[in-house]
Amino acid sequence: MVWRRAVSTPDRHRSRTDERAAASLDFRSGFTLVELMVTMTIFAIVTSIVYFAYVQALRTMTKGEEAADLGSAVHGLVKTIRQDLLHSSYLTEAARESLGIVTSDGEEILYVLHDSVLVRNEAPALPQGIMLDTFAFAFYGNDLSFDTDGDSSVTLEELDLDSDEVLKPGEIERVTLVEVYLQASKHDLSRAITSSVYLRSPGRAPATGLADTSAFPGDRFGEGTLFGEGTVLGERERLKEKDRQKQKEKGFGFDSDIFK
């Protein structure tokens, strides 16, 4: 019997070595449980930060839109009231929470506050969702006589209301200036505004009613013509040039629309 020695060839040895190396490489290229947990933790943190930033940006944008809507509604309401007063022929009602106007075109307009809702001719004056926290009218007037000290000014005083918060009888024809104050809110936002308007036809009344100032057709008041606090410039047409020069000499430096 002949014994033969088995000799391993280099190729077979190299093949087994490559297989072990490949298996070892595959094991090292994978994720361990610790690495996977760390990766998931980092991903969760980054996702939370991004989500928080998105929510904050969304809230800021929503609040900005609500603030714009609230401001637009409040200023729009005040603008409407001012326009109605500037075009008024006379007042039919004057109270803390209500105002009746007849315009030069004969249109009747009534503002009434009812259960914190301001109504203009039976229609809500503010959009739905906006709450009216505070609303009030104030009325100022004079006796339609001019001072004799040569400065052609009259002093305004706030007209008293009775116990029902209504202008006392006989004083509605004295109204020269109407002031409106309102504060409105939407969610946690709030806006307040005060505005005043000088009537273009103060003291004028309907044919059946209040004081008639037709004897002084030149007397008229403009909007926003205050000298100091609580006074308003008013002058007859025949004195307008004289008063303009007088005011320029005093250094007021502007021309009022009263004289135009």
Automatic annotation (TrEMBL):
The keyword Membrane is assigned to this record: yes
Transmembrane residue ranges: 33-54
Keyword vocabulary terms for this entry: Membrane, Transmembrane, Transmembrane helix
Superkingdom to which the source organism belongs: Bacteria
SUPFAM superfamilies for the chain: Pili subunits
InterPro entries per UniProt: N_methyl_site, Pilin-like
Region (Disordered): 236-260
Keyword Transmembrane helix tagged: yes
Name the record gives this protein: Prepilin-type N-terminal cleavage/methylation domain-containing protein
